[in-house]
Amino acid sequence: MTGKLFFVPTTLILPLGQGLVRLFQAAHRRNVVADVSVVALLNASVGGVDAEEIKSAWSGLPEKLRLADATEFTLWESAYGNPDFFDPSNALEAIPFDAAVDLLCESGILSRQWPPFYDHHKRGFGDRFKGNFYEQIGTEALFNRVTPPEWWTGQKFEPSLTELRPTPYKYIEADFLSDYVASEMADADVLDIGCGTGFFTNLIAEQARSAVGLDYNENYLAAANNLWGNGRKGNLSFVSGDIIDLDTRGFAQRKFDVVTIIDTFLFLFNERYQKPLSDNRLRIMKNISSMLAEQGRLVIVDPHPLWLTPWIGEDAAMVGILTEYRHKRFKVSPTLEEATGLLYSSGLRIRRILEPDINPAFAEISRAAYTFMREFPQWWVIECELA
Amino acid sequence: MLDEEIHEKVQNVFRSVFEDPNFLISDELHAGMVPKWDSLLHITLITEVERAFSVRFRNAEIARLNNIGNLKDLVAKHLRR
């Protein structure tokens, strides 16, 4: 091994007890569990150390380095179960010095160059822990042999698709919407854009005068029709349509008191994963505005800009670690400037912004997640009207 | 199984998944060369190749695949087990 090694200072070192430390590389969202002795190596490499020199110094120690990659993208179980992607259960292996250094470099904890190179770009389908949230879902979908549409519904709903899994979707989003629809949409004709399999459209129909779900995915719509039909009150319907090219002679001529966009607005800002939506976002928002009745409201329920923030801490006090905001390396929600700028350009005015709180019942499921989400909102709701 | 047989079977999978009866594969072919070959189709391709040969690749093996040549080698490796 030649050249120099440098400690990358965006690494957090967290003692785990029993002689172990967790090395969390926040910028890459990578985790390594190691013997506490690794700290000496990291300490020696602050500012740069000759690789050969430190290797010979190390060979005098009795043990090889015990080290394991503990990064795990656990969105399969819950989008919230493991927000910093830490799996402490990974078995520690004593590995040779060179292999240990390779793993530390691969995880972005050590670097062979200065300044360190923060490479977030996903190069191939199987390139794990690289790319944004959607791209990582693509890799995990491949490894688990499920398609992304199956993943989206699987992380949100029970297999029946008629009930939410016990996650913040249920304890924040659905709780908020149940109350909000009852108080704000009771006499409204509502259009729900990007309705998917229709869970929230049905929830709206329970309280509103009528609800129409719109989606371009025929499989989702078939499921929605099958699951909910015309709803308990007979006021629910589902329509197939692409919001980019709404036929303004037909359905799109209808006016609605309320248009909802639930967990879909953020897709308008993803240039790599949703390019047609991203390229046409102004047109889409203008199409949507044109379907609002004169006093109508657009209600956007979207993951909060704080969503997907990794955390550390313990049950009573969780701390969020902001690793990015303006540049979307991993996160996928728009910035405040992007979101409000698009609404302004589409002829809309913001009435108010709501930040739904989490139901205390969630503390029974995960005290840590509850503590974090009580402090840091996971969704924001933007209420707009025509300017 | 002969290399030629593996090639033909992999090619048949690609023809079926891409819905193109004339699709020709080469060892150098990779996703960047075929516009339709996106991440969703990639999942289908891997799953269908596994099904065609009754094998199951490991994640690390999938992660290392760069082109069709790699894929055929990986199939051959699994068939030898």
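qc> Residues 347 and 387 of chain A are 6 Å apart (CA to CA).
qc> done
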